[in-house]
Here is the input.
Amino acid sequence: MKLVSLLSGGIDSPVASYVMAKQGAEIILLHMDNGCYADEKELDKVKLLASRLSEITGQEMPLYSFDHEVNQTIIHKNCENSYQCVFCKRAMQRVAKEFAIQHGCSGIVMGDSLGQVASQTLRNIRAEGYDLDFPIIRPFIGMDKLEIIEIAKEIGTYDLSIIPTSGCGIVPVKPITEASIEKIKAMQSKFDFDQMIKDCVASAKRIQ
Here is the structure.
């Protein structure tokens, strides 16, 4: 089993990568670099987390970075502000799918837990991936934050994940919690979503 795992500098995604590696999956780590919308220290955190995951699992986990700043800007210009996070997730999932296919991987790992934040409500999860047609593995979907934190502390990723950074600078003040697929289709028709994804996949570079 070979999987791509979306890795941020947060608490959940490194633990999700660890859990699936312990289940026997070969993991390739993908980081969506927010560029000017992120703290420059975020990438350093991701590299530290990737190193710790390799150490704790005994598995070499290649780490790739993608230019997600361009995606975020295109989304911001063409979509309702409240849908920024939903389209961000749609872009991440589509990039991960295309990269996975290119590298012989059979699924995507994400650290979502249901209802934890706006982008992870059931309606939003459905809207984010309604036309993806590719497996997404969410090992924490029914867990709460405290359970995930406990695992993070056990494997030594927690202290790295809580290194202070400014977070995402393009998160809307009031993100949508009940995204409409019809509205997503309408907004997505305003720009070349497929080309945006192709360009982002082409920006992939191995950084560790």
